[in-house]
Design a protein that fits this description.
This protein has 781 residues and is α+β, with helices and mostly antiparallel strands. The chain contains 13 helices and 43 strands. It binds 2-acetamido-2-deoxy-beta-D-glucopyranose (NAG) (3 copies). One 2-acetamido-2-deoxy-beta-D-glucopyranose is lined by residues 163, 173-175, 226.
Amino acid sequence: MFLHLHLQAYADMLGKKRMLVDSSFRLLVSVGFLLFPVVISQIPLGSKLSVVESNYWTSSNGKFAIGFLNRSGRYSVGIRFSSNSIPAGQQMVVWVAGGDLTVGDESYFQLTQYGDLVLYDSVKGANAWTSNSTKLSVASAVLLDSGNFVLLNIKREIVWQSFDTPTDTLLPGQNLSGFQMLRASSRNAVSSYYSLQIGNSGQLQLRWESNFTYWTSGNSSHSILRAVLSSDGTLQLLDQRSEVIWSVSGEDHNDSDVKLRFLRLDVDGNLRLYSWVDESRSWRPVWLAVENQCDVFATCDLHGICMFNASGFPVCKCPFRPANESNSKCVLPYKQDCQSGSFMTIHEHTIMSGLYPPDGRIIQSSLQKCKRLCLEDPLCTAVTFMNDGTTECRITRTRYVTGQSNPFLSSISFVRSCSDPVAALPLPPTSSASFQDDSKRANRVCIACLVGIASGTFVVLFLIQVGFGFYIYKRRKFSRRKGVLAYTGPNATDLITLSFSEIKDITGNFQNQIGPKMFKGMLPNSRSVAVKDMKTAIEGRKFRSAVLKIGSIYHKNLVQLEGYCCETDHRFLVYEYAMNGSLARCIEDPKLCKRLTWGRRMQICLAVARGICYLHTECREFFSHGNLKSQNVVLDENFDAKVSEFGLGKLHGEASNSCGTAEADISDFGKVVLSLVTGRPEADDVGVWAYEKWVQGQAEELVDRRIDNGVDSEELERALRIAFWCLQVDEQMRPSMGEVVKVLEGLAVDPPPPPFVCRRAELEANESSTSEIELQIPNNI
Ligand SMILES: *[C@@H]1O[C@H](CO)[C@@H](O)[C@H](O)[C@H]1NC(C)=O
Ligand SMILES: *[C@@H]1O[C@H](CO)[C@@H](O)[C@H](O)[C@H]1NC(C)=O
Ligand SMILES: *[C@@H]1O[C@H](CO)[C@@H](O)[C@H](O)[C@H]1NC(C)=O
């Protein structure tokens, strides 16, 4: 196959290009009888690479090639190792045009007649990337033996080079100067947070996001100019006079048998130096920056605390709450709205820091005071007392945390939990048994206690019911007549049940319609409610069980179910009432819409995202919304948004897996965001129009003109990006709702690819020959 392609390419070139190409055009035959790819060391103006032809240019030593790389159905132009001694799966990518940029399957990469390198995206129908070199009198291009792709002028001077825009890799001879950085390649839709750069102090630094430095090289100095990887495998920091100020070498740096090396900031945030080992035909890490992977900040991201398992491998575990494989995110148990107070569980030998937002505070205190400070702060979720000779107390106020645990750490952490029995399961400290055991034990305890409570409650309730049933029946009749309903607070078991005639009473015989099949009503205690006529024939028992599940969900961004009616063929739901009605209505109404300032709109986006995220990830059973749209988002008197009518698929008698998916909710959320930005109702063509405008750099034109006081252009960009990510036709490209929340809270997000093309299946059917395979990153070396 390969051979055929190469011969084909060779024949094509002989046919078409012989006139253009000078004597540097040659055919290499390697020592064996393998035919090596055709090499054009000089690439003339007008030359082109395309996805369809899957052609590429190689360096004259045959060690590197530049061409299209298949990145799960999309394409990038990049440079990779291509020596014939390196098997396809090990041909590491060392540079990508435009970082993480990907394009469609009919795209091409061309050195134009004007001396510009352009990457044309067939999906956008526009250039996605260019080298901006039209003014540099470019005469040709060459992929040098070092892996540096350069543009040359007529005097053969380098006027542009790929080495100046590094991605995640540094090759021998390549400089990393003060204004450049390596960034680990991204996972999912979100840019990697890990970068390597030269800090102001003149040290090499590994950073998480822009501010958290978790590794620095050597002593600081004011005169650092650049870092460079030498050909013998030494990473050096050099000053203006090219004197070495700091250096580090791989274990094989003196080994002249090693021909190929590279330094890469890996996806896991660790910086490693790799050497090619001919005998094993594989890349071997010969140096790494952070010895203990658990010291890489946020190495577990949202998946808990980093620790080492019995075999010495770092693993991520969630010691606070039994994690479930279907829900692998780890969040702290404490929620602000816990009703019956809170308590702290101790986790010895553990350090914790907040993530998303990383807003930790550091205070000097004693151990006991540290713990107390947290209990007194309504937002505090956990604290760490460093106990390392300092009296540092780190206060965390987010439910997303990172950290590590190991017996050599002296620090002591306290994790806060709500005292109410369902929300918090006090687990034994992490220092004992492994997490797996903990979770099993916790489950056993919980099941036992739940069974106990449940059966006890059942017996008691049964007795009460038998004994007082008649009395209750009488009393209800009586109280209804007097217009007094027993109303208790919102609690799953306290959902009020109403008869159909009570529904008629509280809604004034359905006088005040506030939405489709939705009526305003007033409880006898003067509390307003919204009453939804479900118009469904679902069997009473199933209806009640579904209602109880929905009623057990509390979140400040979800409308609370307060009661229901299930009588003969009448099915109603009674919700808390939101004064400003639905978001759709507010957007439509010229007066109300004036009150939806830009800031409020962004708050609404975040509130809706948080509500849906809660449904998707934090309920005891997976819930999707199934019908998210601006009609189903309501605004209270302060314009705080709550999502309404979630989980109703279950009430229409649909099997639980057919009432919508998380992916569908995410796409619907994208439409709600666009509706908020543009002030138009949700429709598919709004997305297409918005994306076109955004691509053309005219995002401001999308904004609802009725918004006073302008918009924050950074927030606008963020909102549009996340909306287009959510609207990806390819469901696998959509972010999770948790990621959406993080982005809306301020996390950086990559520009989205065009949302409305779905060619994955097509692409998978005709796999390109240029494929990229990731190196297996060793867990510990
Ligand atoms: C690296 O920097 C040095 C000093 O500025 C320079 O001489 C050298 O050409 C640079 N190397 C590359 C590949 O740009
Ligand atoms: C590297 O090799 C040379 C000779 O091959 C030897 O003299 C030198 O000591 C070696 N250096 C190190 C650090 O091993
Ligand atoms: C984890 O989730 C799956 C599917 O949602 C469920 O079947 C399983 O019982 C859960 N396991 C635990 C330990 O909660």
